[in-house]
């Protein structure tokens, strides 16, 4: 039964990640920051793997956060309700919107603003050491993978200022990790309630 619940949670997280990928990628493409034009024209043939890959990453992250909380013996109790999760999602989308739409005087100013917003998102909706540590780890790993993809010509960023990508990218990955972690934690609450009911019976 526990395996079935894990699979259901994983499926919900997967499709949530796919949805976020499609919506947020539209914001980036509008500013020509993600895909070269020839890749956009072949969206379903050339980049069919992007939404499933991001969905898989979202499922892993969403399942990993509550598991790490249990392993560390630090149950996450800060703002544990769906309304808070929805606000977290809204702030995450806002951070992505800022990276795609707002013009700053220079890249450093944009990166520092998004970094402050990302840490603010963690402070408002998480505040756990495990959440911060996983967010940083996700940002580092995802940025490294993005660098490899750009280096191999899969993506192209206009005016890259952090090796092959934009310097604000780790901030987006960090806030995305925290957001998916909060969704995963909220979904895990239902499993704990079921386990409590079974013990009571």
From TrEMBL:
Pfam families named among the record's database cross-references: INSIG
Keywords: Cholesterol metabolism, Endoplasmic reticulum, Lipid metabolism, Membrane, Steroid metabolism, Sterol metabolism, Transmembrane, Transmembrane helix
Predominant localisation class: endoplasmic reticulum
Record's keyword annotation contains Translocase: no
Keyword flag RNA-binding: no
GO CC annotations on file: SREBP-SCAP-Insig complex
Membrane topology: Multi-pass membrane protein
GO BP, sorted A to Z: cellular response to insulin stimulus; cholesterol biosynthetic process; SREBP signaling pathway; SREBP-SCAP complex retention in endoplasmic reticulum
Name of the protein described by the UniProt record: Insulin-induced gene 2 protein isoform X1
UniProt organism field: Octopus sinensis (East Asian common octopus)
Gene giving rise to this polypeptide: LOC115225857
């Amino acid at each position: 039964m526990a395996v079935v619940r894990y699979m259901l949670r994983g499926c919900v997280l997967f499709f949530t990640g796919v949805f976020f990928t499609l919506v947020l990628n539209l914001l980036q493409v509008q500013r020509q920051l993600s895909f070269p034009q020839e890749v956009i024209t072949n969206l379903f043939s050339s980049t069919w793997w992007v939404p499933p890959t991001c969905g898989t990453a979202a499922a892993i992250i969403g399942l990993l956060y509550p598991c790490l909380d249990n392993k560390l013996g630090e149950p996450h109790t800060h703002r544990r309700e769906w309304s808070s999760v929805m606000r977290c999602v809204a702030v995450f989308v806002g951070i992505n919107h800022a990276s795609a739409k707002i013009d700053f005087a220079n890249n450093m100013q944009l990166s520092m603003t998004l970094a402050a917003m990302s840490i603010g998102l963690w402070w408002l909706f998480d505040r756990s050491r495990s959440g911060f540590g996983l967010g940083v780890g996700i940002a580092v790993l995802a940025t490294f993978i993005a660098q490899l993809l750009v280096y191999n010509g899969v993506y192209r960023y206009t005016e890259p200022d952090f090796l092959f990508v934009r310097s604000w990218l780790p901030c987006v990955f960090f806030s995305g990790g925290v957001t998916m972690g909060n969704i995963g934690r909220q979904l895990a609450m239902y499993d704990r309630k079921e386990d409590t009911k079974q013990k009571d019976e």
